[in-house]
């Protein structure tokens, strides 16, 4: 199945804009900016920033929930139901503690790994069987930081980490058209070996 909805996860508001937890927003913002005439606009019925665009000749929705992270499912579930988009046609882009900065991985299904945005989306869709694009932000322990996880994700990455995260977003953007076409084997191989 091709991807019909790409969701970037983050928290709304300027105080969160540059925090690690907003890596999903960063990718979707970059994607929207790279597509001619694509502009995310507020859509109150989904409580989200939304754009309808074309990628690889296919119609695709871009979505950034404007709820807080732990209520992301409201926006995702609402838009998916309204436009009759199946869970396996959804790609959720999110920050991933278990991957180092600079690493990006794509997979379908699996647990939320403690990510509250994914937990809420799974509850809203009634299944874990949707695609995820995981952008590594590192873990405070692996980065030799004493910060609690909740504090870590709500802070800006260090400069060297930011550069690596931006590189992983660039790599990910190159495989998005393949995912939209449903060519997940090629997309994951390119992403995981880039």
Automatic annotation (TrEMBL):
Keywords: Cytoplasm, Hydrolase, RNA-binding, tRNA-binding. This is Peptidyl-tRNA hydrolase. PANTHER family: PEPTIDYL-TRNA HYDROLASE (PTHR17224:SF1). Its EC number is 3.1.1.29. GO terms for molecular function: peptidyl-tRNA hydrolase activity; tRNA binding. InterPro entries: Pept_tRNA_hydro, Pept_tRNA_hydro_CS, Pept_tRNA_hydro_sf. TRNA binds at residues 16, 68, 70, 116. Monomer. Belongs to the PTH family. The record marks 95 as: Stabilizes the basic form of H active site to accept a proton. Pfam families: Pept_tRNA_hydro (PF01195). HAMAP family: Pept_tRNA_hydro_bact. The record marks 11 as: Discriminates between blocked and unblocked aminoacyl-tRNA. The active site is at 21 (proton acceptor). It is found in: Cytoplasm. Hydrolyzes ribosome-free peptidyl-tRNAs (with 1 or more amino acids incorporated), which drop off the ribosome during protein synthesis, or as a result of ribosome stalling. Catalyzes the release of premature peptidyl moieties from peptidyl-tRNA molecules trapped in stalled 50S ribosomal subunits, and thus maintains levels of free tRNAs and 50S ribosomes. It is an enzyme of class 3 (hydrolase). It catalyses: an N-acyl-L-alpha-aminoacyl-tRNA + H2O = an N-acyl-L-amino acid + a tRNA + H(+). GO terms for biological process: protein quality control for misfolded or incompletely synthesized proteins; rescue of stalled ribosome. One of its GO terms (cellular component) is cytoplasm. Its main location: cytoplasm. It comes from Massilia cavernae.
